Predict the structure.
Amino acid sequence: MEITIYSSFLPHDDAEAALAFYRDALGFELRKDVGYNGLRWLTVGPVGQPGTSIVLHPPAADPGITEDERRTIAEMMAKGTYASLLLATEDLDGAFERVQATDAEVVQEPTDQPYGVRDCAFRDPAGNMVRIQEVR
């Protein structure tokens, strides 16, 4: 049996800012833009990889969470501790330069880590940690 990752979810608090980061800074394509009750869900993914997507969603849309939980989520998003994403590329320096040229918050420049990978890190507009690892 083969199981693949089809979609992963990350929260956003500003659909236009999220779209600018994932489309313009990372080069992903917009696959779906769904609005409902004044909220937007954006599905983005790497060009040429139609089977892998990220759904950028409004975290407050889940009817099963309380107001206290919504506040906690907003606080964690603001600190960058709520969600994260690990991407990979063969050209880490090129990817870093492309993302750095935008308004993205740089957390870490390309670095050789003691655990054997070379990577860099940014925060997306919602505060999500986005790490990009070099494929060797």
In short: DSSP finds three helices and eight strands in the chain. The chain has a mean pLDDT of 93. The first helix runs from residue 15 to 25.
